[in-house]
Amino acid sequence: MATVRVDICGGAREGKSALITSLGSGVIGDGKQLAVVEAANDEQYTRNLAARAPIADVNVIVVDARQGVTAATRRHGFFAALIGVRQVVLAVNKMDLVSDPEGAFARIDDDFKKLAAQLGLAASGVSCVPIAAESGANVRTRSAAMPWYQGPTLVELLDRVEPEQTRLREQPLRLPIRTVNRAGDPGGLEGTVVAGRVRTGDAVRVQPSGELSRVTRISGSEGDLAEAVAGQAVTIALEGTVDVSPGDLIVAVNAPAEIANQFEATVVWLAEAPLLPGRSYILRVGTATATAAINPLKYKINLSTLDRIAATTLVQKEIGVCNLQVDRALPFDPYKANRTTGGFVLVDKVSGAAVGAGMLHFALRRAQNVHWQALDVNKGARAKLKGQKPCVLWYTGLSGAGKSTIANMVDKRLHASNRHTYLLDGDNVRHGLNRDLGFTDADRVENIRRIAEVAKLMVDAGLIVSTAFISPFRAERQMARALVADGEFIEIFIDTPLGIAEERDPKGLYKKARRGDLKNFTGIDSPYEKPEAPELTIDTTMHSPEQAAEAVVAYLQQRGIVTIGGDT
Questions:
Q1: Catalytic: which of 135, 471, 526, 544?
Q2: Burial class of residue 415 in the structure, from the number of CB atoms within 10 Å of its CB (0-12 exposed, 13-18 middle, 19+ buried)
Q3: Could you report the per-residue pLDDT of 283-313, keeping only the tens digit for each?
Q4: Domain ranges in the chain?
Q5: Which of 56, 93, 455, 478 could anchor a disulfide with 5, C-beta 3.0 to 4.6 Å?
Q6: Which CATH number applies to 258-369?
């Protein structure tokens, strides 16, 4: 028996509770089961997105006939369009309390259909029905008190709704692989079919690799199956030796998903801390995981007026449209085609908490047109010529800790030993590459992102590159580490207590910050997140700059990165 899942949206003023009672549940029409799964509001929409909760087949938006279409109605309509609900019914309640019910309904019906068109809701999926929920008029039975309305009752409208699961079964196959289990019986590839159907003997494609194969076996919870359809959890086996990993997508041969690493997307921000464009987050779409960054944020939505507002960041519960870039190509479908292969969650790399959820719209054209150019002279060849192992020495600590002093001494020591090095200093870089950036959290993130990318290029050139930056946030230091190979990122924490750094104050910055003349200064009104597991920690209350520099050089020799007095 098919089940129609219904979200009823509205408040006590509109009479939502009375409608839920009048509507009830059970069988409707031609054997369909009615299930009121949520009495949705803005908070529940965003929470459900983060939890990837099932989305209703139809939204019933309740309005008071005396009030008409309100800001709350516009928000409910916006969220219905946002999450891809294909059927929306406006239930105009309390028709028995207006003096001109026919005229009032006609005006509200017209207003809502104009709103639906503005939101991009298909006209064929939008309906309006006048009701009196307290008496049940036009809910399950037609009302004699409204002879001017000849349309269907609310239940009749719900009976016409095609459940999303039914629609998905007619779409091309999409089977995200959750687990690869080669051992045991039946063994194979485990996942849930999220679109289409798969039969034994079907030719399929693995994405993103593109490998082709055939399905040799399908197993469900009760044994082997000849066929599995959308909504079923299965284990499948493929013919031959096929390289499949968790996160891959099994698709129909002739109807593959798109593959890209850059997208336009809508983001619903969930975290208390604001979104910082350029910061790296973990992205989860389907069963796949990648590292993602938002850059730039195009605009955010005013949920009261639905206007687009220029913005550079989002705060909790705000919604914006952005460009999203991931570190590897991912198979996907636009969210409106498939919520599983087009919906995503963003997770903070440090806390592991969900900070955002969203919808992929389409691949950016440059994702299809920009490709890596193969080069004959690579990092290994350049490093061999220089007689060293390239790496990043990432010095981090408070202003005044001694980062630049120590980094400069290490650079001189390595240079005197004929090593090929370069030092990227925080102040020097802000005179050129990063002179357009200030010191807000968002600008600090972008500052470090650019430096990390430059350092990556220098490592590829075979250099030992030092970076002397406060780099206050763990997330950005992790991003910089992820850009280079294992063992090529050496985090050096110059551990100096705030009080001692402030006593030194070589540039007079702490004094300015204390007077309020310098905003967003690390340690005063902007946080510094200490490294949790740096490769090297130097306590400058115990060691002089010279001793600290020798400790760094000794560490490099111990790691086999350089051999002072000879070749590596």
A1: 471
A2: middle
A3: 999 999 999 999 888 899 988 888 889 888 9
A4: 3-162, 168-252, 258-369, 379-558
A5: 56
A6: 2.40.30.10
